Amino acid sequence: MATDDPGNRRPSPLSLSSSFRQGLMSDQISEEQEAESQSHVVAVSLVDSTPLLWRMQDLRAVRGQGLVGALVGSLARVPRQNGRMGRPLQLLQEEQRLLGEQGAIAMATRKQVSEERRSLVFESFDSYRSYEEQTVLALEDKKSSLLRAMTTPTPHTESKHVALRGHLETLDHHFTFPRSGLAVQLSTARAGLTYCPEDRVYLQADRSPRGPVSPQSEAKYQVFRDLRGRGFYLTSAGKFGGDFLVYPGDPLRFHSHFIAICLSLDESMCLLDVLTVARLGSNVKKTVLLCSATPEGGVVYTSLQWSGMV
Amino acid sequence: IDRCTPKKQPTNWIQQHPVYQGMKSLEVGDSAQIHAAFLVYMDLSEARHWNKVSYMKSPELEVVLLEGRELEGGPVQTVLPLPVHQNVNHRSLRRVLDRGFPLLLCAVGSDSTLVYQRMTDGLVTPDPPVGPFQDVDRRHQRKRRQQD
Fold first, then answer.
1. Where do the segments described as Disordered lie (chain B) (predicted)?
2. Percent of chain A with pLDDT over 70
3. Which residue among A257, A266, A275 sits closest to B91, beta carbon to beta carbon?
4. Which pLDDT value is given to residue A30?
């Protein structure tokens, strides 16, 4: 019976032996960090039911506990690509639940915002530049554009210039800056990264109640918790037709060893599907892992590999 | 052409084979599975020249199981032959694994194609990719991208 334990990590083919040694050293450092991050409570923002992390210290803490998540934000400097993503970090449902069970997660509840408070919130948005300041600036902008229109040589008639000059002279009296034209700076970065209460209240989505846990998601969670407890890192495996990809260490340093497929012990699968998934696994040099939660609370694993018999 | 002589029926050698008849006597109740088991038996014993192949009934599963050694003195392995369109669940696979021997699952197609898969309890690390490894430089990456 062969078991895979994180002590027998194989480096990815692209790493050299020196970086492997460095990796071992950084393992020691990360253990200290892991102890620190155990006590850290991360702040989760919910968009519908999707859990997101915004703050750097939260991302670091969560990674220190062996939870990988997925970056889903676009980077301001390189927006039109998805090779490199930025914050926020989206957590798997299983990761969120695991953090919740450890008491390491805090979800700010949306309080009932009173009308008075709402107006206070909108008042605070004037912090960028007050209405008066913006009125003055807008008036100056309008004057300079009118001047520009008057002084540029165009084939317009003289009467147009006269009209423009007249307009300019009366501008000071007639100019009104509509409130809808007010420029407002909404600090989305601040809202996510700190507990700035006014901004968070405005940007937070309604927290939807978590529905009843289906037996499939319960089974998936049992497998996730068991494998995480054994020291493996797990990410979602949609690209490989499975439930989780199982890494012996941090995904930045290793290739995954297993494609985990979670099913119940009595769930019936067509043999053709077993062959499909085994073939896929052998093509990408990963072992397919059939995982089932037992009624006693443990998880049984069956490794599925190509036999080598042609 | 003599049309009066009735065409001689080809002998069904499978049904007359002693091993097949032995499997039938196990009274598993699934003739498709017995046929699959027989084909795997013949493949292991005659084509792959396994050292010893025997068949028995699995009490919990109502199927014919095969057991054998690939080489003389080698480890005993269990072989579970199943028609490819049959369903299987994890619990029955675990029961066969409980016998304590490494398990080979064999899927038998309707055209008698045989596909063997190894099933093991626990987490078996896959074999690492074979070297030598070369870092691809930018030119090759660009070329590969053009080919895609």
1. 125-148
2. 68
3. A266
4. 54
